[in-house]
Amino acid sequence: MLKSLKKLWQQAVESPASGRKAHSLELCVAALMVELMRVDGKMEAAEQRQVLKQLQQGFELSAQATRNLLGEARLATDQALDMHQFTSRIVKGFSTEERVDILHQLWCVAMADGHVDPYEEQLLRRVADLLGIHHRRYIEAKLAAGDSGE
Q1: The pTM is what?
Q2: What's the CATH fold of domain 27-148?
Q3: pLDDT digits over 53-81, tens only?
Q4: CA 71, 75, 78 angle in degrees (round to 5)?
């Protein structure tokens, strides 16, 4: 019985027809930003504007494509069990420097409303760990975001 269940599970994971599609890198970054906006229980307009700005500039998207991406990210995070499905794709798809830049963008989102909630800071620390970013680089990204005034 266990062997048959294990075999079914393996086939479902490996099968492209299973309905599970790999998230695009843009969607993964957007999903982290959505999670960050939601973690403190408030969806601040300033944070949402910052997310749209970071996604549009970072991925060179049109305004409409950025809004569509944000909508997809909201759906993806609603269905997600954890952040690993997003961060693992980011680790595979981006260099260390690019991941540090993504962390910087996340800090800009957290600081957009003028206050970094402890839940936001805790989430950013976990994301940095999942992205394989050393603590020193985490602090540098935080300080750079504060200095940029975004």
Answers
A1: 0.82
A2: TerB-like (1.10.3680)
A3: 999 999 999 999 999 999 999 999 999 99
A4: 140
